[in-house]
Amino acid sequence: MKSPARQILTQREVLQLMKQRNSQSENNDDYIGNAPDNPDQPDDPNQNESDEPGLSKDEIGAIKEIGAVTVGDGRHTIHCLSIIGQVEGHYILPSQNKTTKYEHVIPQLVAIEQSPDIEGLLIILNTVGGDVEAGLAIAELIAGMKKPTVSLVLGGGHSIGVPLAVSARRSFIAPSATMTIHPVRMSGLVLGVPQTLDYFERMQERITRFVTENSDIEPAKFRELMMNIGEMVTDVGSVLDGEKAVETGLIDSLGGLSDAISALYGMIEEGKEAAAK
Fold it and tell me: Pick the catalytic residue: 158, 167, 171, 182?
């Protein structure tokens, strides 16, 4: 029969053995949820590898949260801003809606304009429209930027997406994309008085003035497309595909991503050459 002292020693040995096994399991690939230390991994947390090639974890997080990323691996450092779903303004939309929040976009535009590192802005649009005043606020900020800006309409640039698309210095649209031009709408309680119709008319004039000042379409043509009653069955307005949008002067050119980036690079380089003279 073993002595009590020997029993206590055995317990200590068991505890020590368990600690050794636990320590080994932290660095063993066979244990779930733990990977061996990578000696080649950089100490800088901003340089952590991500699941996406060429993007850091911070950049992936920015894309997930606000749909934007700054890319500096090409000839120039540009910021890509996506405007998708509905433009959310003064009222919060239901959680199942894809939205672009203007309180996220406005600070980004200010930061882009002020940043010495960012040389240009690429705006990707696939939006059904949304809050008129919020959309116009974003469009006015983009139009007032000194840095080169290029927009690209993919899928759709409908309703308030039209001013957003033309707010950039150069605009592109994919051949398969469409743009819907229609009169201003309002949901909720509407008073049936002449002042309401006057308000709608003045709002439409604001949109018409902005679009025609930032594109090549004539005001009369834009109003004609807006008030067209022969195209949509249950609505007033017009739907333009990519080629038609370019023909009317609403959008500058047909093209895709490479065309938009090339145009943005060209504008950046022209600006640098002009500044050097």
Answer: 182
